[in-house]
Design a protein that fits this description.
With about 325 residues, the protein is α/β, with parallel strands linked by helices. The protein has twelve helices and 13 strands. The strands form two sheets. Strands 1, 2, 3, 4, 5, 6 and 7 form a seven-stranded mixed sheet that branches. A hairpin with a 3-residue loop joins strand 12 and strand 13. Helix 2 runs parallel beside helix 4 and helix 2 runs antiparallel to helix 5. The protein is globular.
Length: about 325
């Protein structure tokens, strides 16, 4: 990776569709690291980050696109936290197939096939942000406080504030190291967990009210309809962790959120059981992810059919 970076001057940093905290944090961290270390980097995001990720980084949400100030287009693409090439979101008119620039693939998903010209995939990392921190240290880069804070956002988001099973002793040491580099831990924790919009909290209550249980309470699922977002004044980008209101129900081993979209139906999965991998469920729907958090998008189907698909999908899991 060090040798490859030495050959580029204007890298474009990108990530996957529907970015989460690790994706947003990693993109903004690498953008700042690259610029701080002499490269004329730019980034592209499929949507602007919600305010909770902007507040710890100076109080102003960063835009979805940050064009390079250099003359000419990017000369490379760095894909972050994106397990599959077909999920990578690039500027309009640009596709991975036929990409005119070399692509580097940095990720921590176990099912990443290594689609880049250069690949740095580490499934043992708790987040792509951890992988970037390792890379910055290996390259002896200066890590400014704003980049350390962005990396901490990624780590905190993907470990559920150090509550999930991917939190290891190394993860906690990583958080301490980021603090040593100036990461604003109080601001990150306050913004991510103690400044939720009232509408979002009411939306969570509505999901619980409509949630259904199956297999003796081991499976819980709910439908996040577009009209619910409108009713409570919630933006889609704010619902990244709304599924956790389902996962917290006592006795639940797998939680699923079904989200109808105009052309697709999304399934988001979370597992609370070390023995049950939701990545396997998501792959059977053409998606993927981690053992405890995964998702898939299929062509739009009626809600009754989507629910039955979920029940059929999980029947063997719970009858084993």
């Amino acid at each position: 990776m060090a040798g490859w970076l030495a050959t580029v001057r204007r890298p474009l940093v990108a990530t996957h569709l529907h970015p989460d905290g690790d994706a947003f944090g990693s993109v903004f961290a690498l953008y700042n690291l690259l610029r701080d270390n002499g490269l004329d980097a730019s980034y592209w995001l499929p949507e602007a980050p919600p305010p909770r990720y902007g507040r710890p980084l100076g109080g102003t949400p960063f835009p979805a696109a940050m064009p390079s100030r250099a003359a000419g287009p990017p000369d490379a693409v760095i894909a972050l936290d994106c397990a599959r090439a077909d999920r990578l979101q690039l500027p309009p008119g640009t596709r991975v197939a036929g990409l005119p620039w070399p692509l580097a693939n940095l990720d921590h998903h176990q099912d990443n096939p290594g689609y880049g010209a250069v690949n740095l995939v580490a499934a043992d990392a708790c987040a792509t942000a951890e992988l970037l921190f390792r890379l910055a240290l290996a390259l002896h880069w200066r890590i400014p406080p704003v980049a350390a804070t962005a990396l901490l956002i990624g780590v905190v988001a993907d470990t559920g504030a150090f509550r999930f099973s991917n939190t290891t002793p190394a993860t906690l040491r990583l958080a301490a190291d980021l603090r040593d580099h100036g990461a604003d831990y109080p601001a990150v924790m306050d913004s991510l967990f103690f400044q939720e919009p009232l509408g979002l909290l009411r939306l969570g209550a509505a999901l619980l009210e409509s949630a259904e249980l199956a297999y003796g309470g081991r499976l819980i699922y709910a439908v996040l309809k577009p009209e619910l977002l409108e009713q409570f004044g919630v933006q889609p980008s704010e619902t990244e962790d709304i599924i956790d209101v389902l996962r917290r129900v006592q006795g639940v081993e797998i939680a699923c959120l079904i989200q109808p979209e105009p052309a697709h139906t999304r399934f988001s999965f979370r597992s609370r059981s070390p023995a049950l991998s939701v990545a396997d469920l998501a792959r059977r729907l053409g998606g993927g992810g981690h053992h405890a958090a995964a998702g898939a998008r299929i062509p739009a189907v009626p809600l009754p059919e989507a629910k039955q698909m979920l029940l059929d999908l999980t029947e063997k899991v719970f009858s084993a």
